[in-house]
Specification:
- About 65% of the residues lie in helices and about 0% in strands.
- It is mostly helical.
- The chain folds into 2 domains: about 80 residues, Multidrug-efflux Transporter Regulator, Chain: A, Domain 2; about 50 residues.
- The longest helix is centred in the last third of the chain and has 41 residues.
């Protein structure tokens, strides 16, 4: 059985980083850019001291980051949590927008995978000396290329 947490227990930045799976520099950065509120400091040495509540917030932020949420949206998410009655609606709007971005990314990734599958099939046909199959697969790859270019967006290297 895990020992009960002491209400005023505090954690170092190293312990906090290990707890949420982020680097210490990331915790400092998130504090600097306002994703998380300023962390209390030890008055004797100025070091950051994290509470269990801070760790809970860091865990949520780490999950949002792992889900690909941009920093600005993570900042809004944390701020929305403190907005009272309007907070839940704001969270829903924010998370639905992120869900839509993830769905678009998934479609783009699937188009890339299909293209690579076709390129593998093309080269397998070439290696087998099957020019008919190579032409068929090549034509399918050309059909997909427009979708692939559109899905990759203008700033993705090809």
């Amino acid at each position: 059985m895990a020992p009960a947490l002491i209400a005023d227990q505090v954690f170092t930045i190293n312990q906090a980083a290990r707890s949420c799976g982020m680097a210490e520099s990331t915790l400092r950065y998130y504090e600097q850019v306002g994703v998380i509120p300023p962390v209390k400091r030890n008055p004797s040495n100025g070091y950051r001291v994290y509470t269990q509540r801070d760790l809970d917030l860091l865990d949520a932020v780490a999950c949002l980051a792992a889900a690909g949420m941009p920093v600005a949206d993570m900042r809004a998410y944390v701020a929305n949590a403190a907005r009272g009655e309007v907070g839940p609606e704001a969270q829903i709007v924010l998370l639905e927008a992120h869900r839509a971005r993830l769905a678009a990314e998934a479609r783009a990734l699937e188009a890339r995978r299909r293209y690579v599958d076709l390129k593998v099939a093309y080269w397998q046909a070439v290696a087998a000396g099957d020019q008919v199959e190579a032409r068929r697969v090549s034509a399918r790859a050309r059909e997909l290329s427009g979708t692939l270019r559109g899905a990759a967006g203008p700033d993705v290297a090809r």
